[in-house]
Amino acid sequence: MNLYDSNNNYINSGYRDIYGENLNPGAYYLEIENQNYNDISGTISMILSNSNESDVDLGILSTPYDQSFDFNTTNEVDRKIRYQFTVEAQVAYAFQIVNESYDDYIYLYDSNGNYLNGSDYYEINGSLAPGSYYVEVAGYSNQTGSGRLLFNLQ
User: Domain 56-153 falls in which CATH fold?
Assistant: First the structure.
């Protein structure tokens, strides 16, 4: 499948799925290409949604902060959930995924989207300067599932 805008500019493609594109209002075209040159049949299911609608804004956090959040990425358009937060002093952090039902990862970004830390093995820790950040939980290779995020600031 190939996705194009109304000017025939290529946007993205996928073998079975296309995820994560932020589309502006307008017309778009989905091209379905059969590389075996056989007849094809099937169903196309489109979900158009704000990819950030289930992200969680925790606001300004003070230490100590020790919470857990159950998450489920199964119905997420972008297959991930972000937990945004701000700290006003230097803090030590420990973020961990437990009780997961799929092969997931945890990544930490600053407010500009710069990658700071991450793990495919469920836990990251370190320290943060005052500022805004977000923790992202998602599945490896667009997998979806559920788990619990342990969120600790000291």
Answer: Jelly Rolls (2.60.120)
